[in-house]
Amino acid sequence: MTFSIMQLAPGNPMQTMINPKISAEEMQRAQEKLGFNDPLYIQYFKWMKEVAQGNLGYTVKTGQPVGKLILERLPATLLLTGTAFLMAFSIGVPLGVYSATHRYRLPDYVLTVFSFIGISIPSFFFGLGMIFVFALKFGWLPTSGMITIGADHTGYALFLDYLKHVIMPATVLALPTIAVVMRFTRSSLLEVLNQDFIRTADAKGLSQQKVYLKHALRNALIPVITVFGLSIPFLFGGAYITEHIFNWPGMGSLGIQSIVAREYPVIMALNLFTSMLVMFGNLLADVMYAWTDPRIRY
Amino acid sequence: MENLLEVKNLKTSFFSDGKETPAVDGVSFELKKGETLGIVGESGSGKSVTSLSILQLIQKPHGKIVNGEILFKSQNLLELNDKQIRKIRGKHISMIFQEPMTSLNPVFTVGNQIMEVMTLHHGVSMREAKVQAINMLELVGIPSPEKRFMQYPHQLSGGMRQRVMIAMALACNPDLLIADEPTTALDVTIQAQILELMKNLKKQFDTSILLITHDLGVVSEAADNVAVMYLGRIVEYTDVDTFFEEPKHPYSQGLLKSIPSLSNRVERLTPIQGQVPHPSAITQGCRFAGRCEHVHDMCIREEPPLMSISQHQIRCWMYSESWNDRDKEDTAHGREVAAGRESSKVVHH
Ligand SMILES: Nc1ncnc2c1ncn2[C@@H]1O[C@H](COP(=O)(O)OP(=O)(O)OP(=O)(O)O)[C@@H](O)[C@H]1O
Ligand code: SF4
Ligand SMILES: [Mg+2]
């Protein structure tokens, strides 16, 4: 899939490296040697064979191993998406509960409007807006990067430095997921609150809070697990643009650079990684289902 | 003896689009310690709404208790705030519901759900609660209670789940048990077992029971007194023996004729024609007029009050002085009007 879409895009890595002094003839020869002129399926199978052996290939330009390149970028991306993931659920679920328990009252309407904005606002717009306000106008937060270069923080100071850098991109990345988690939690909780066993819980004399947070929420979170699984690849995907905006040294910005440079091996490897994330997300969701819902046993 | 529970002039309505639909209207009854009161009536007569009103479990925000008093040990429950009523629920008054399949929480074990009431109201430790809960399961006739204790509701049959509900309801030894059609959803043999169980437990704990049912067989088995409800009203209220010997209200007579019993086994069963109208279709006059074979002009003009006649309280003009002086001609006319109303379902207020 990915492979064929990439091939449809005009241009190849050679053209981006063109040195005007090289003749068209020489260029043709080089392409031949590197296998660019082979039929597509042959190129694809060559790649598959290498991947199966654990070799993700080498960058076209510099010849670095792609696997190593990605591994270098992985921690930064994990830090960003992990933070965004935690934010999405630790903020989205409570907001959803609050919204559901205040249905048809002002807080619910406000949160509903917020969620529509959260889902529909483009991340580059929101990201640039945040940079403008918090970094440029007030100067509270750094505009980009992951650490303050040359500051040599250690221990707690280093942690704080990370935190300052990660908060804006993570918020931008998490926003749509927060909104989705919130809406899902809200509607699921409202549905559960109409069920007979909630009336039973009320009839037992439990406090309102216990009825909501023990009996209702545990049931309401079962459908939210779906969002949980889907959000993992979604967040990694969103990291492309977010990392680019905030100049975050992760896989996302690597991806964007590679697309611009037509670095096929890197793009292919990143996409392979994303597909694995989708499967991982599904697996995680299934495990969580079995864990929260005793009616499901594998 | 003093009444344990006294419901006075209860009115509970549902509101939608600013329109009020009274599901229960002017219902009064009382219950002494150790007594069982059966509330009977067909589907839609307001039995569940009455029982839910007592513990203020009516669906908010559109359902609302509009009027009346609910005196429990002489305290008006309707004057309590949310926190106070929750202290009564499950501890002094508990409830079992019509739907055993959906009334237990699917994600918690049976044991967890029973222990929860015990730790909540009696403040016992988890270990103590576990011992008590297993005892309770044994008491309600659940085989291998230790094993069931750790199971989830979906692993139990409907009858077993209703036993769990009963165990849960009796866990804190309440003064009053409200049982809203506890056997309706179960099959016949299980029904008999559950009923037997409730009777035994009642003897053992001296619990008063408000037994809601549409099954007169259940009433004759288990109740001391009977209140017959029709379209939000009590139409007849008396003790069980009098009721079965000498039912007075045309509706009660109809109900009795429609069940198979020893006395009328040979006769053909004659169910009452039609069904309970929706409370939004209430017209002036007797609420049963549309289905009553004795209907007279006076029934349509004005609704009969609840009158005391010997052992009965009854809401029917047939038992008033004026019935004997009535103009016989008007019976036919009354029937026509009632039939007309029934078919057009005009709403007067
Ligand atoms: N949540 C609700 N919202 C609106 N109307 C309701 C609600 N619950 C009950 N009603 C109405 O109140 C009336 C009485 O209902 P109720 O459930 O008390 O009947 P019931 O006697 O318990 O019948 P059943 O034997 O079917 O349980 C019905 O006409 C019903 O439509
Ligand atoms: S008052 Fe009239 S209509 Fe109503 S039950 Fe009695 S006889 Fe029938
Ligand atoms: Mg009912």
TrEMBL record, chain A:
What is the similarity comment for this entry? Answer: Belongs to the binding-protein-dependent transport system permease family.
Reading the lineage from the top rank, the first entry is: Bacteria
State the membrane topology. Multi-pass membrane protein
Xref: Pfam families: BPD_transp_1, BPD_transp_1_N
Q: Which GO terms describe its cellular component?
A: plasma membrane
Q: Which UniProt keywords apply?
A: Cell membrane, Membrane, Transmembrane, Transmembrane helix, Transport
Question: In its UniProt entry, what is this protein called?
Answer: Glutathione transport system permease protein GsiC
State the compartments where it is located. Cell membrane
Query: Could you list the residue ranges that cross the membrane?
Result: 76-97, 109-136, 166-185, 220-241, 266-291
| Taxonomy of the source species | Bacteria, Bacillati, Bacillota, Bacilli, Bacillales
ABC transmembrane type-1 domain mapped to chain residues: 74-285
InterPro entries, alphabetized: BPD_transp_1_N, MetI-like, MetI-like_sf
GO process annotations (BP): transmembrane transport
TrEMBL record, chain B:
InterPro entries named among the record's database cross-references: AAA+_ATPase, ABC_Ni/Peptide_Import, ABC_transporter-like_ATP-bd, ABC_transporter-like_CS, Oligopep_ABC_C, P-loop_NTPase
As recorded in UniProt, coiled-coil segments are none
Subcellular location(s): the record lists: Cell membrane
Highest taxon, organism lineage: Bacteria
What keywords appear on the UniProt entry?
ATP-binding, Cell membrane, Membrane, Nucleotide-binding, Transport
Main subcellular localisation: membrane
Q: Which GO terms describe its cellular component?
A: plasma membrane
Query: What membrane topology does the UniProt entry give?
Result: Peripheral membrane protein
Q: Name one GO molecular function term.
A: ATP binding
Q: Where is this region: Disordered?
A: 328-349
Keyword check for Zinc, yes or no. no
CDD domains of this UniProt entry? ABC_NikE_OppD_transporters
Q: What's one GO BP annotation on this UniProt entry?
A: peptide transport
Residues of the ABC transporter domain: 5-256
In terms of PANTHER family, this protein maps to: DIPEPTIDE TRANSPORT ATP-BINDING PROTEIN DPPD, OLIGOPEPTIDE TRANSPORT ATP-BINDING PROTEIN APPD
The UniProt family comment states:
Belongs to the ABC transporter superfamily.
Family matches, as NCBIfam families = oligo_HPY (TIGR01727)
Protein name (record): Oligopeptide transport ATP-binding protein OppD
Q: Native species of this protein?
A: Pseudoneobacillus rhizosphaerae
Phylogenetic placement of the source organism: Bacteria, Bacillati, Bacillota, Bacilli, Bacillales
